[in-house]
Amino acid sequence: MTTPPRPEPGAPTPPVRPARTASPRTARAINDRIALELLVEHGPLTAGRLKELTGLSRPSVADLLRRLAEDGLVRDAGEAGGSRRGPNARLYGLVAERAHVAAVDVRTTGVSFALADLAGGAAGGAELPVADGGDGADGGGGGGDPAERTATALRQALREAGVAALHTVTVGAPGMIDPATGALGRSTTLPAWHARVPAAIRERLGVTVVLENEVNLAGIAEHRLGAARGRDTFVLLWLGHGVGAAVILDGALRRGASGGTGEVGFLPVPGTAGPPSATVCDGGFHSLAGAAAVCALARGHGLRPPRHATGDGVRAAEAVVRAAVAGGAGAGAEAFLDALAERIAVGAAAVASVLDPGCVVLGGEVGRAGGQPLAERVAGRLAGMSPLATEVLCGTVEGSPVLGGGLVTALDAARRELFNPR
Q1: Sheet containing 234-239: which strands, arranged edge to edge?
Q2: Closest C-alpha among 326, 329, 321, 315 to residue 370
Q3: In 3D, which of 213, 189, 216, 384 has the Cα closest to residue 286?
């Protein structure tokens, strides 16, 4: 904590500025938002419980509930259980169906969706395979433009869930998001249709669309819902088809000047095939910890992924790591996990030396498959590489962390608008 400088002896005393007092209208808006957020966190509450949680007077709470009911945000939700009856037992709950949001996870071979109501309750979802992950207008599989098919599939998911309209859609996609324009940067390694998805959804559904890097969304999910909940500084190290990182510093997601914060796949690593280039990261940290490298490392230790997960893709890497942790991958499992932890620790040490986050969360398909056993191995290797104390955790968000972070982002946008009704 920095101590403010003391004035020199004889210096004039600066004038004391009176504290600014919020206007009655601003105070009401603040109290309304606090009450609504409490209803999101706790579910339906009595007026008495709202009084305890907000510190407001009983008349102020009654006035607040009346305003919110008139604005269609709060309604009567029955009575509290037990022997309590009457006005004091009346419960008030958020009108969850007042608005819905969606998250979209765009991958090379498909798209997945998740819907939620204003309270964050699940309201449906769907998946859309994309043949060959094609670059052309027909997606390479003859099924039409994948961006247009994504918008159509999302609209169908809304119909099936009985949702009339969306407030906000968050789209998570691989690649760098330009912080100035909010657009997905062109990449030679990603299908061209990825960049068309936000516009297709915006135009076909008439909805606000927020585009974000998918690893950043996973980091947001771990921050708000998972392993890093309650921390204001940490790094999510994503280990999947490729590698990446989400950087949360002082409670805020950091994107960098060009949207490239966390592109650790391009981190140069001596001893690999060569330095990475501006367009290909095969010689960087990606070549140590990407899915293909994990599969090759497993084969080198005599391990094979299960029959249902062949090749060098992310599913194969996830399966072989999961089998190794479970002890069903053969005699080389322990040595394989040790070697994998050594590789991951290289990237974690680089992140720690620059940012000193105090915590690294292992995410992505491989990181989640390795769980706590892999995290503990990485922590041991990292402690020997870096003098900076860095806790290593495994991601704990249930389901898809990309969709989870997307829903959190979309809900934040919806609540910012709707929770300030007057």
Answers
A1: 252-254, 243-249, 234-239, 359-363, 391-394
A2: 321
A3: 189
pLDDT band at 280 (very low <50, low <70, confident <90, very high): confident
Domains of the chain and CATH, by start: 24-94 (1.10.10.10), 98-214+403-418 (3.30.420.40), 227-396 (3.30.420.40)
Token pair 């921050």 is found at 223
Contact between 215 and 262 under an 8 Å Cβ cutoff? The reply is yes
Summarised one tens digit per residue, pLDDT across range 221-254 is 999 999 999 999 999 999 999 999 999 999 999 9
β-bridge pairing 100-107 and 110-117: antiparallel
Task: Kindly report the number of other CB atoms within 10 A of residue 336's CB atom.
Answer: 24
Sign, CA torsion 156/162/168/169: negative
Instruction: Tell me the whole-structure pTM to 2 decimals.
Output: 0.88
- Reported as a pLDDT band with limits 50, 70 and 90, residue 39 is very high
Pairing of β 168-173 and β 74-79:
unpaired
Residue pair 194/214 in contact by the 8 Å Cβ criterion: no
Do 294 and 322 contact (CB within 8 A), yes or no?
no
Backbone angles phi, psi at 345, to 5 degrees: -65, -25
- Return the closest-CA partner of residue 375 out of 409, 419, 421, 341: 341
Rg of the Cα atoms in the chain: 25
The predicted-structure confidence for 73-111, as pLDDT tens digits, reads as follows 999 988 876 545 666 789 999 999 999 999 999 988 889
- Cβ proximity of 391 and 88 under 8 Å: no
